[in-house]
Design a protein that fits this description.
Blueprint lengths: L1 E12 L5 H6 L1 E11 L14 H14 L5 H15 L5 E7 L13 E7 L2
Antiparallel strand pairs: 1-2, 2-3, 3-4
Helix pairs in contact: 2-3
């Protein structure tokens, strides 16, 4: 099984439990690991997953919907990726919220999920 990684996809979104997070929004970063059986299949786009289409789908969800929890956002992204790309066998999604409203010094907060086609 081959793996494709799309790392550091940055979007402006309005996710969070606090009203000001929905009003003001913030930067979110998404990392994706896509397992696709592309070995020995040739050199055609149809034999893998179109990275541009993956980006567009993720962008639409992160920018267009509101989630209170980044855990729910990560889960929804994984589900939608599996639905949209039939060649995709397994996906791992990590959603970073680098400016989470935490009263202290921290480098990063993220939620991660992994889902496979059944």
């Amino acid at each position: 099984m081959g793996e494709i990684a799309l790392l550091g996809l940055e979007f402006y979104g309005r996710h969070g439990v606090h009203p000001e997070e929905g009003r003001l929004g913030a930067r979110f970063v998404v990392d994706l690991w896509l397992e696709v059986p592309f070995e020995g299949r040739g050199d055609l786009l149809e034999e893998t997953v179109d990275y541009a289409a993956v980006y567009t789908l993720v962008e639409g969800i992160v920018r267009g919907k509101r989630f209170y929890l980044i855990e729910a956002l990560a889960d929804h992204l994984a589900e939608e990726l599996l639905k949209a790309f039939p060649r995709l066998q397994r996906v791992r999604v990590r959603v970073h919220k680098p400016h989470a409203p935490i009263p202290g010094v921290f480098r990063d907060v993220y939620a991660e999920t992994e889902k496979a086609r059944s």
